[in-house]
Design brief:
The complex is a heterodimer of chains A (about 160) and B (about 300). With about 160 residues, chain A is α+β, with helices and mostly antiparallel strands. Chain A folds into two domains: about 80 residues, Beta-grasp domain (Ubiquitin-like (UB roll)); about 70 residues, [2Fe-2S]-binding domain (DNA polymerase, domain 1, Orthogonal Bundle). Chain A contains five helices and five strands, in the order E-E-H-E-E-E-H-H-H-H. Chain A has a five-stranded mixed β-sheet with strand order 2-1-5-3-4, with helices on one face. In chain A, helix 2 packs across helix 5. In chain B, strands 4-5-10-6-7 form a five-stranded antiparallel β-sheet. In chain B, helix 2 links the parallel strand 2 and strand 3. Chain B contains eleven helices and 14 strands. Chain B has about 300 residues and is an alpha+beta fold. In chain B, helix 5 packs antiparallel against helix 8. The radius of gyration of chain B is 20 Å and the shape is globular. Chain B starts with 16 loop residues before the first strand and ends with a helix. Classes of the chains: A alpha+beta (about 160), B alpha+beta (about 300). The interface between A and B is medium-sized, with 32 and 31 residues.
Chain lengths: ~160, ~300
């Protein structure tokens, strides 16, 4: 069955048709050529396909494309956060396949923990749904920590 | 060479119809009228089952955005949680944190952030997995479920909800609509322990406990529930009865904890062995009961 859907992708209005069984992952990658979102495990364990739907993280490999009708979807292409730069600075990127998923989950962090008070242990737990098979976790967590510090400094009022 | 049992987690191998009803009644109508129609909530079990070829539904009925299913309300000493409320919303809810601390703790430690934002409480318990942390906790609490169907509303005690592995009392056309839990009372403490390979894995053994002491310090209520050790989540009456109406201390709790093996029937599978599960169940029951007892005195 084909369904017409209308949604916002990284701020742009999209109107298209999808099959009932089209996954959001495939709509993005195959139909719209937004390839920042990655397929890896397909069963919700690795986080490589993480996108934001109405500001909340979702696994696009376990979301139907038809479900995003009327919603706002954000992928790594529409994100410019401090964490992306810190990942580069701290060598938090090896093969890069997991990186978009990590960046998308960081995008949600200020909403999840508005006071930005997270210890290293909290950050490890926060990113537990994102798997890096190069096992470059040390630098990824370091980049996240530095990003948090910078965000905190920015949110402090100037005196 | 013949390759069998190849599953492709990249695609959903079959097509289906998709509906997004606005009300519970509309959803019940669709479920009743369309043969082989199933409810889509968080989708984390459902879509994986379809990918694996274990389920071939004709239609998916998305109930996630029905308003009544997304509310948490307090009615007298009971908290009513809509079936489509997400685990992350339980974690962020002040009501849940204060009034049902056991459920709050489970929600906070549940899987990953992505899975918590997608998973609904109703979907998690309706999947009837014996390895559900949420179901294990609900079994130790005074929990009742509201079910709506073509014949109206009925209520079921949580202990009567499961018939077996992946089987519930839900009949065709019925939807789990509310999870109703009695709030924490005075002199009550809770424990929650699990063993898994890494922190957010599905558990090898889960234990949830609840202890209520009377004014003289005797155990007025003891609940011990376990997950991943039987075809469904189970209580341990042997441990509970051993402790009931006694003054509790660590030695007595340890004695009682050995009895848990009489109430469980674990199996060998990819996550663990039956032997290990029996051994660890005893240890976790002891620790979770001690945690609950300490919780009473802290409160």
């Amino acid at each position: 069955m084909s369904y017409k859907i209308k949604f916002k992708l990284n701020g742009k209005e999209i109107e298209t048709a999808v099959e009932g069984n089209t996954l959001l992952l495939d709509l993005l990658r195959e139909q719209l050529h937004v390839t920042g979102v990655k397929y890896a495990c397909g069963i919700g364990e690795c986080g490589a396909c993480t996108v934001l739907i109405d500001g909340k993280p979702a696994l696009s490999c376990l979301t139907l494309a038809v479900e995003v009708d009327g919603k706002e979807v954000k992928t790594v292409e529409g994100v410019d956060n401090i964490f992306s730069q810190k990942l580069v600075d701290e060598a938090g990127v090896q093969c890069g396949y997991c990186t978009p998923g990590f960046v998308m989950l960081f995008e949600y962090l200020p909403k999840y923990s508005p006071d930005l008070n997270m210890s290293e242990e909290d950050l490890k737990k926060y990113f537990s749904g994102n798997v890096c098979r190069c096992t470059g976790y040390v630098n990824i967590i370091k980049a996240a920590k530095l990003s948090l510090e910078e965000l905190k400094n920015k949110s402090k009022p100037n005196d | 060479m013949k390759i069998t049992n190849v599953v492709n987690t990249r695609v959903l191998p079959i097509d289906f119809e998709y509906y997004k009803p606005k009300t519970i009644n509309e959803a019940i109508q669709l479920l009743t009228q369309i043969p082989d129609s199933v409810i889509l909530a968080g989708g984390l079990d459902l879509l994986i089952w379809i990918k694996m070829g274990q389920l071939k539904p004709r239609a998916l009925i998305n109930i996630k955005e029905i308003k009544e299913l997304n509310q948490v309300s307090v009615i007298n000493d009971k908290i009513e949680i809509g079936a489509a409320v997400r685990i992350i919303d339980l974690e962020k809810s002040e009501i849940i944190r204060k009034k049902i601390p056991l459920l709050w703790k489970v929600a906070k430690e549940f899987s990953s952030i992505q899975v918590r934002t997608m998973t609904t409480i109703g979907g998690n318990i309706s999947s009837a997995s014996p390895a559900s942390d949420i179901a294990t906790a609900l079994l130790s609490l005074d929990t009742e479920l509201e079910i709506m169907g073509p014949n109206g509303i009925r209520k079921v005690r949580f202990g009567d909800f499961y018939l077996g592995f992946r089987k519930t009392v839900l009949a065709k056309g019925e939807i789990l609509t509310k999870i109703i839990i009695k709030e924490k009372s005075e002199n009550e403490g809770f424990g929650y322990k699990r063993v898994a390979r890494i922190y957010d894995d599905i558990a090898k053994v889960i234990v949830a406990t609840r202890i209520k002491l009377d004014s003289k310090g005797y155990a007025e209520k003891v609940a011990v529930s376990l997950g991943s050790v039987a075809p469904k989540v189970v209580r341990s009456p042997s441990v509970e009865n051993y402790l009931l109406n006694k003054k509790l201390n660590e030695e007595l709790i340890e004695e009682a904890s050995y009895k848990v093996v009489d109430d469980i029937s674990p199996i060998d599978d990819i996550r663990s062995t039956a032997e290990y599960r029996r051994k660890v169940s005893q240890v976790l029951v002891k620790r979770a009961l001690i945690e609950a007892l300490k919780g009473v005195y802290l409160a």
